[in-house]
Amino acid sequence: MAGKPPYYAGIDVGGTNIKAGVVDCEGTPLGKVSVPTEAIKGPDSGVANIKLALKLALKQAGLKTGDLVGAGLATPGTMDIPGGMLLEPPNLPGWNYYPIRQKTEEAIGVPTVLQNDANAAAYGEFWAGAAKEAHSLVFWTLGTGIGCGIIIGDLIIEGQHSHGAECGHIIVQMDDGRQLGGTGQYGTLEAYCGTKAVVRRCEEVLATGRASILTEWIQAGQVLTPKLMSAAAEQGDQVADDVIMETARYMGVGTVTMLHTIDPDMVVFGGAMTFGADSTEVGRRFLQEIRNEVKKRAFPIPYAKTILKYASLHNDAGFIGAAGCAKLKFKP
Question: pLDDT tens digits for 70-123?
Fold first, then answer.
């Protein structure tokens, strides 16, 4: 048996996959697995897959259910966190008004706490990742949506109605703003910086006739994605680079709002759309462009003293953070 007890389970439920892991008291993973969510089969089937994922993670860790103090369950919203209830989660269609915490707890036989997936990922970075030396954190997840989590001390900002830190929906364009599909909202950060929005903005530029290697790649059958745009920008494509850097400036505007609201120690950027993060030249310039926009718009002291950096836990942040939420809730 490795690691330092006590041990906690973390379960991160997504629309496609369920990631489950077992961690020790310092947030070190002892076992982790991923299984298909099969969301279309409904929530009861999903809970059965949660049970399977945890069983496999425990086996990998060399532990048994009885070795766990508690489990954290991270799911996409909307939800009633204190009530343990999914409300109308867009990534889990048909799972509406489902008591997922209770059902999961009954299935796995371990005390379970529910948390929003972005909040859980933020706590993962705060507890065991890029922000483990920080006292307060704003964590942006860049992907299909723009998620956010806010941690102050050991307090996760959930809000009175379980909708705290939904900062992807802050308004960055008041007049004639882009519409966020499915919500009816206009001018939100997500409407400019979510992956679909980034692709749409790039398509609009390409439609003007500007020369780009992306046009050749698309005509050859490739699908336009932020990853493809990143590859083009790495080759010096100006259209791709312009759209990526404009995305960074919008993220900078959103980050300034967070600096002026929270005044955190650190702002961390993670998720699937970081353009290679620190490992690529485009990723490094993307973060620097965010910093440049923050410098332009923020009060000088928050800009100078707030650290802006990339996340370090990558795809593990969700289940590690969920386990951390169990640690907070079920201290032995």
Answer: 999 999 989 999 999 999 998 899 999 999 999 999 999 999 999 999 999 999
Note the Cα 42 to chain centre separation in Å: 23
Torsion of CA 211, 217, 223, 224, to 10 degrees: -30
Give residue-wise pLDDT tens across range 152-172.
Answer: 998 999 999 999 999 999 999
Of 59, 52, 49, 51, give the one whose Cα is nearest residue 22.
59
From CA 92, how far away is CA 112, in angstroms rounded? 20
Same structural domain, 40 and 144: no
Are residues 288 and 181 part of one domain? yes
Is residue 320 within 8 Å of residue 115, measured between CB atoms?
Answer: no
Q: Is residue 72 part of a domain?
A: yes
Same-domain status, 256 and 170:
yes
Are 36 and 142 members of one domain? no
**pTM higher than 0.85, yes or no?**
yes
Owning domain of residue 116: 7-127+315-329
Say how many domains are in the chain. Answer: 2
59 Cβ contact list (under 8 Å, min separation 6): 31
- Could you tell me if residue 152 is inside a domain? yes
Q: What is the DSSP string of 188-255?
A: BHHHHHSHHHHHHHHHHHHHTT---HHHHHHHTTPPP-HHHHHHHHHTT-HHHHHHHHHHHHHHHHHH
Q: Which residues contact 200 (CB under 8 A, 6 or more apart)?
A: none
Nearest of 240, 251, 263, 323 to residue 289 by alpha carbon:
251
Do 257 and 306 meet the contact criterion of CB atoms below 8 Å apart? Answer: no
* Apex 101 CA angle, 100 and 103, nearest 5: 65
Does 122 share its domain with 157?
Answer: no
119 shares a domain with 186 = no
CA dihedral 52, 3, 6, 319 (to 10 degrees): -40
Integer CA distances (angstroms), 106 to 68, 110, 211, in order? 15, 8, 58
